[in-house]
Amino acid sequence: MAEGSLEASRADGDMVTASRVQELEAKVQDLERLLGRKTMEAEILLEALGRRGRKARPTAAVAASGRSPVMAVADTLGLAGSDLVEQLKCSGYRRGPYQRDGDDAPLAEIRAVTDARPTYGYRPVATLLNRDQRSVGDPLANRKRALRLTRL
User: For residue 92, which of 123, 128, 121, 60 has the smallest C-alpha distance?
Assistant: First the structure.
């Protein structure tokens, strides 16, 4: 150390202690780690931009590609990690119209009413169906079911 300090004093340079060198090396490591993280975030964002469309679908596609950790994708894009994991598990599930057993008969009745009165919404249609079913003695139609069936 004595020779190093003498060399620095001869060259009119600043003398730096060993602890300061270690401190600066630790800071360089932190900055390199931060640079790596920001580079990964930039790659995630570029890949997400390449997959345009709704927000959730490109996100799931980026996470499913396996190039980046799921939580890194979620943090970068500002989404909840649990939602992203759930999307990856249930990628085939899609909400939408569905048909149950026993919907055929009410659907035929609803179609008959809407063909005769195309301007009627689901409430008047349900009222007409209930009027007919009350006269026959059948159970009444649920308005929400009538709404679901008119959308099919």
Answer: 60
Give yes or no: residues 109 and 66 share one domain. no
41 with 81, same domain: the answer is yes
137, burial (CB in 10 Å: exposed 0-12, middle 13-18, buried 19+): exposed
> Which residue type occupies 125?
V
Is the whole model's pTM more than 0.85, yes or no? no
Separation of alpha carbons 89 and 74, rounded Å: 15
Q: Are residues 83 and 36 in the same domain?
A: yes
Q: What is the pLDDT of residues 9-36, one digit of tens each?
A: 555 657 778 888 899 999 999 999 999 8
Residue 10 lies in a domain: no
Task: Give the residue numbers spanning the domain of 135.
Answer: 104-150
pLDDT of 2: 54
C-beta separation of 114 from 150 below 8 A: yes
Q: Which two tokens stand for residue 149?
A: 């069936």
Tens digits of per-residue pLDDT, 39-61?
A: 887 777 777 666 655 555 666 66
d(CA 70, CA 85): 7
